[in-house]
Amino acid sequence: MMKPADGKMLPRITADKKPFWEALRQKRFMTTRCKKCAAVSFPPRMICPACLGDQREWVELSGRGTIYAFTLNRIVARAFIDEAPFVTAMVDLEEGPRILTRIENASYEELSIGQAVKIGFKEFTKEIPFYYFEPVKTAR
Question: Beta-strand (E) ranges in 61-115?
Answer without folding.
Answer: 64-73, 86-93, 98-103
